[in-house]
């Protein structure tokens, strides 16, 4: 299959330039949902075909993986089954990527519950519970920020584990030992094997095109119905932003990006991402995708950013 290198033009939802302060947003309430809508401004952006270029996870912050042995999510209806099937794939994959791309040896990797997104799910900005599926997230954002390391160390709910789980102790010990923590995020087609993602696909912004003044920190409530709060990053629109997408993402393909690296320090260069609507693509099968995250723990302590 060949793909054109044509650039798409589509509106992406950025944070309003009028927003300066850090505001607590509870994503679960209808009043907060209306507040979120007033903060977002759609901006027409050029989105280039990522298949026309080669990207490397370490140098570029994201990469397309091909030939992966992905589970058949169409047969995995229970959240528990999706959890274990996804963990079996991405934990070894994350460990291998850190070894092969960064030349580093993890001593532990922790998998958090995967997020299932269905275009046919009830439209809602409530992202607290992904077990039954949520709509694609059409907002320019990065799931981590400057304080993510301290948040992850201090908030056990973040790991998707009950407080009496024996695995929680392993995660806490790993944070105490680690000199560096990297979070890899994986985005996969969750549709049947003979289908590709055509509608409401994912766009990634190259970290090299992000400047510090573009960043807006936002406090939000936790995922999976937990009560804790954490910080994400949203972006103000900038003409320097370089956006990419991968048309017709197939069954054995996966996008991976660095969601967080403690080696960044204060010089955060996030991989902003969002879903977007491509009006040039005929309306086909509704999108179904899975996002998974792996926290990789390393003894190495690196001062420079990726």
UniProtKB/TrEMBL annotation:
Keyword set includes Ligase: no
MF-aspect GO terms: methyltransferase activity; oxidoreductase activity
Listed GO biological process terms: methylation
Keyword Methyltransferase carried by entry: yes
Highest taxon, organism lineage: Eukaryota
Keyword entries, A-Z: Methyltransferase, Transferase
Similarity remark: Belongs to the asaB hydroxylase/desaturase family.
NCBIfam families attached to this UniProt entry: CmcJ_NvfI_EfuI
Name of this protein: Inherit from ascNOG: Methyltransferase
Classification lineage: Eukaryota, Sar, Stramenopiles, Ochrophyta, Bacillariophyta
């Amino acid at each position: 299959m060949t793909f054109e290198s044509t650039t798409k033009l589509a509106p992406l939802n950025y944070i309003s330039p009028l927003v300066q302060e850090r505001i607590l947003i509870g994503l679960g309430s209808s009043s907060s949902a209306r507040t979120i809508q007033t903060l977002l401004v759609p901006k027409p952006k050029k989105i280039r075909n990522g298949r026309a270029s080669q990207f490397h996870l370490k140098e570029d912050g994201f990469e397309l993986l091909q030939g992966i042995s992905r589970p058949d999510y169409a047969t995995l209806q229970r959240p528990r089954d999706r959890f274990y099937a996804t963990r079996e794939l991405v934990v070894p994959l994350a460990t291998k990527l850190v070894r092969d791309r960064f030349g580093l040896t993890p001593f532990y990797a922790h998998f958090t519950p995967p997020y299932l997104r269905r275009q046919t799910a009830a439209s809602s900005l409530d992202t607290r519970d992904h077990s039954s599926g949520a709509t694609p997230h059409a907002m320019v954002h990065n799931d981590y920020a400057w304080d993510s390391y301290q948040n992850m160390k201090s908030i056990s709910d973040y790991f998707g584990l009950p407080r009496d789980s024996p695995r929680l102790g392993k995660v806490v010990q790993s944070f105490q030992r680690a000199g560096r923590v990297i979070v890899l995020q994986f985005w996969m087609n969750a549709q049947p094997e003979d289908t590709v993602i055509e509608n409401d696909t994912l766009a990634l912004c190259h970290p090299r095109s992000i400047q510090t003044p573009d960043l807006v920190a936002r406090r939000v409530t936790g995922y999976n119905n937990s009560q804790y709060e954490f910080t994400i990053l949203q972006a103000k629109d900038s003409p320097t932003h370089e956006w990419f997408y991968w048309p017709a993402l197939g069954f054995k393909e996966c996008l991976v990006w660095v969601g967080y690296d403690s080696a960044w320090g204060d010089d955060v260069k996030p991989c902003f991402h969002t879903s977007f609507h491509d009006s040039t693509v005929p309306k086909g099968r509704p999108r179904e995708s899975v996002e998974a995250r792996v926290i990789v723990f390393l003894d190495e302590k690196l001062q420079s950013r990726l």
